[in-house]
């Protein structure tokens, strides 16, 4: 059971709730803070204070005063009107990430909702009832309005939810599970939809997958280096102490460890005419390390965002203030996820260059395309074409969405982050990287077969064994699609990434 306090939710806990269906509860300290904020809101309403989105309309309509008897309807109308997303529904794990992040933000006690609202959201998570949330419909300010409105729609018993693998009307599922929809009160509709949780949720899932992929890239690079009879000399500790970027130092350390006790290396140590390897082998610490540095920065941004209040207005009982501000603006997350896209794309670029060297007989010293009978067989010829297709898509998607602000809401929201677009790109780009690495690992494992019975480095031999559990050596031409899917599954689950740990 993961307990939400609003202050210490880890990215790994978000993934545990999202992917592993871990149960969630609201901590006692958070309940106390939520109650205090709600009591303060009710006190202000009794005094007749004017509060944005509570006693007024929204956005450009903030000057319209709403009478007390219409304020409940205002919140329901907000949810209904803003649930205007389009496209394919988000995956259940993405919706779960959004929901646990939204609940954690509300748990901080700066949003002014009742604890019953949070309890129902957690009940849906724990019952594995997932609101149907279209993939498109947010510009990342004022938060992820449409995606969060589709989540909120389920809380008021409307819209559709996915339950036991089927999309069904929410009220029907609530009836079966004896769940009771909430009747939204003042401020609660706005508290539910004004925030960055869709951008952040998808971003967290993309980052954790990218972290597994960068570890896998170290393994893939070593498999290729052994297949190509490269040298690990460029990975010596002294080299990287002379330029001590943290990611570079870390990458070199992993590469050295994976290549330890290599018989393949010893077989050509004294008779190799090459003074140095091509950049795609020699510069792995510098390129992989740059990605590590970027992902470290992104992790910090997402960890802070996961434990932040990002709606508007914000409620501060101790200061006796309700403040309209801009924490809903996702620029910091959007820029970070654009950086993720660029870093991950470059990992794919250097991986594709290693694939080219593995299959090109002029560069590898191996049979053309790693086939057993070149000419009669094509081997891995089209495998590289697949990697190039993926890389081209990744390069297009690496254009930053965070610079594409388009004003909305009658120019009230005149600078927006396009955060959800950044997050969607990040998810897709990491998928593509996993496939590129799958191609490299499969080709690299085949190259090592040509050096048997010599053993590769201890980490590389372990990787080779894992690959061979899923994919047999190439005895003749066959469709490689299933091989790549099998190795991609190893990458996604982290089975290969753990070899660097």
Give the arrangement of secondary structure elements.
Elements: E1 2-4, H1 11-20, E2 24-26, H2 28-46, H3 71-82, E3 86-89, H4 92-106, H5 115-126, E4 129-131, E5 134-136, H6 145-155, E6 160-163, E7 166-169, H7 170-177, H8 188-193, H9 197-227, H10 237-241, H11 246-258, H12 263-267, H13 279-282, H14 284-306, E8 314-316, E9 321-323, H15 331-359, H16 361-364, H17 381-397, H18 419-449, H19 458-470, H20 481-493
Parallel strand pairs: 1-2
Antiparallel strand pairs: 3-5, 4-6, 6-7, 8-9
Explain what you see.
It contains 20 helices and nine strands. The protein is elongated and about 90 Å long. It has two domains: 2-195, Fumarase C, Chain B, domain 1 (Orthogonal Bundle); 202-318 and 329-500, Fumarase/aspartase (Central domain) (Fumarase C, Chain A, domain 2, Up-down Bundle). The chain has a three-stranded antiparallel sheet. The relative contact order is 0.13. The mean pLDDT is 94. With 501 residues, the protein is mostly helical. The protein has helices at 11-20, 28-46, 71-82, 92-106, 115-126, 145-155, 170-177, 188-193, 197-227, 237-241, 246-258, 263-267, 279-282, 284-306, 331-359, 361-364, 381-397, 419-449, 458-470, 481-493, and strands at residues 2-4, 24-26, 86-89, 129-131, 134-136, 160-163, 166-169, 314-316, 321-323.
